[in-house]
Amino acid sequence: MSNPVKVLVVITSANRRGAELEGVELATHLSALGTPTQVVALSPSTSAAAVDAEVIGTSPLHLSTLRALRRRARRADVVIAYGSSSLPACSIALIGTRVPFVYRSIGDPSRWIRGGVHRVRTALLFHRARRVVALWPAAADSIRRTYRLSISRIDVIPNARDAARFTPATADQRAAARQHFGVPADAHVVAFIGALSVEKRPALAVEAVTDVAGAHLLIAGDGPARADAEVAAMAATDRMHFLGSVADVQPVLHAADVVLSTSSTEGMPGSLIEAVLCGVPIVATDVGAVADVVAAGAGTLLSATADVATIAAAVRQQLSTSAAGPQPDCPFTWQRVAAQWQLLITAVAT
Predict the structure, then answer these.
(1) Residue pair 276/330 in contact by the 8 Å Cβ criterion
(2) Banded pLDDT at 1 (limits 50, 70, 90)
C-alpha cells in the first residue's frame, strides 16, 4: 500500500476569520479521511482569539517567514494556499522545491483588481499554482476570463460546515439561547453574524432591523465598522445586542428567527451555510455565492444596492413566514466537501 499524501495548509494569519477557520477545518476533515494534514499561519493573530495553527512568521512576505514556509513545504507532498496573501507567499517560497501547490480563491478575484499592473502580477501568481479552486461556478469563470487560466486547471469546491455540529434548535435550546442573550422569549430575533467590516455594512443591518417594530438584533462579530453600527443602534439600543467575537455561534443561530446579511461583496459566507444547516431562513444581498447558499435553504435575496426600507420589508416578510426547518442533502457539508478535496489532492500529487 502506498503512503498517504501529506498536505500542508497555509493560512494568512492565526486570526479567527472566515478563510482561516475554513483552512483549519479542512485540515481536520482531511486528516479524519486518512490524509495527514497540518496547518501553518504566516502571521500571528492580532487579537486574543486565534485559530489552532502553528505561526511561522511575523508577516506573510517577510524573508524569515518565506524561509520557514519553504522548510515546512519540503515535508509535504501538496501545499494548499488558503486565501489571497498566501498566494504570493507560496509562489515565492516554493520556487525550485518541486512541491506543487493549490490555491484556494476565497472570493471573486475580479472584484479586487487595482489596475492593469495588479492584474498582470496576480495572473502570474495564479499561473504558478498547479490548480486553482474557486468557491462557485461563476467565480471559476471569472478567474478563467480575468487571468486567462485554462479551465482544466480550475476546480470548484464550496465552503462547508459540519452537519453534525450545526443542527436545528429544540424548543429548550431556543429558550435557553434567548435567555442567555437577554432576549424576550416571544420576540422576533434577527442575527447578523460576521466580521464588522466596511463591506459587511453592519450599520445598514442595524438601521433595517430598527425599522422592524419590536425585532431584536444579535450582532455576533467585531471589527472596524463596529463604531458606526453602535451609532446607528442608538435609535433602538434596547433591541440591539452587540455580542463581540463569538467562539460558538450555534446559540446565536438557535435564538434567531432570521439571519441577515447586508454585504456589498462576498465569497461564500460560512455563517449562511450554518443558518441553512440550523434551519434558519436568510435575508441577504445577492452578491458572490450567496444565492447558491440560499437556494440550499430558504430565504429572500435582495439587490446589493437595497436600501434600509427594502431590507426592513424583506425581514418583516420573512418573519411572517414559517421557519425553514432542517434542510436535507445540503451540498455544503464537510461530509461531502472534504471528499472532493481529497480527490483533487490525490490528482495533484500524482
Answers:
(1) yes
(2) very low
3-state secondary structure 8-36: EEEECCCCCCHHHHHHHHHHHHHHHCCCC
DSSP 307-337: -HHHHHHHHHHHHTSPP----TT-S-BHHHH
Nearest to 333 by CA among 216, 107, 162: 162
Which residue in this structure is represented by grid cell 492584474? 119
The overall pTM is greater than 0.85: yes
Amino acid in position 208: A
Q: Please give the grid coordinates belonging to residue 11.
A: 493560512
3-state helix, strand, coil in the chain (%, to 5): 45, 15, 40
Count of C-beta atoms within a 10 Å radius of residue 289: 24
**Distance between CA atoms of residues 116 and 124, nearest Å:** 13
* pLDDT averaged over every residue in the chain: 93
* C-alpha closest to that of 109 among 148, 161, 150, 69: 148
Distance, CA of 331 to CA of 278 (rounded, Å): 14
Task: Say if CB 158 and CB 135 are below 8 A apart.
Answer: yes
Q: Which residues contact 295 (CB under 8 A, 6 or more apart)?
A: none
H or E segment and range at residue 339: helix 334-349
Start-to-end CA span in the chain (Å): 15
3-state secondary structure of 281: coil
- Give the three cell numbers for residue 105: 480563491
